Amino acid sequence: MTTACASAPSATELADYRRDGFHIGRGLFGADEVAALRDAAMTQVALGPVPGLYDEFHHFGADDPLQRHPRMLMPHHQTGLEIGRLSERHLFDPRLHTYLAAFLGEEPCAAQSMFYFKPPGARGQDMHQDDFYLRTIPGNCLAAWVAVDQVDDENGGLRVAVGSHRLPLLPVRQADLKTYFADDGVDVPAGLAVVAPELKPGDVLFFGGTVIHGSGPNRSTGRFRRSFICHYVGTSATHLNPWNRPVETFDRRVIPVVESPVGPWQTSFAGRNQSNRPH
Question: Which of 18, 83, 229, 253 is deepest in the core (most CB within 10 A)?
Fold first, then answer.
């Protein structure tokens, strides 16, 4: 198993993060580490359903690639499974801690883990902001998006609106369900450039909770776009979506948080309460 010392972002990297709203940590995880995570996830899918592990918020037809490879939600809670043990290890990895602490400006606490498969032909996810779902108060959540495969725009890599971290949560609208699997999205304000970073297995894309991001369909003929996604908040957080609990520091202390109030952005789209849906 690859091991590495925990390094912190340089002053230049920190300045770039504050300017653009995101940062790519190149090669933070070794190829063998993400391969083990990938293989454990694929093995678990082959073994069949596990109560509470797979996405129950979306329903797909039998011919939908996402029906055969549904995303895993909170796999780090499933410590009786290999994918659960590896997810827990990655979620609390010290190599992430140093970047998270620098970007948050305080000690990070883990709130969520997810594993996305995105096989060939799978739909993407419309542009959105993570704190629409996590509802962090005060401050914002911070994502660490770990590339498990080679990631580019063809196989449905992330697209990020540069500088959108300065925005508040924006009004939500209906997404095109022929292109995207989730039914909500936001519009990118005029003047913001959208980039599609190419990532190698083990690269980590960090971005904050108001950063507008999403992905298109996987247009490749034979490449998955698997990713392990972690969300964190700072120790100053007092309110959060109750789905994202328990909230734990890296030394595994539970931080008490209470349920966030539902703001108008959670109820504005088709009159629906989005407060308990995961990202």
Answer: 83
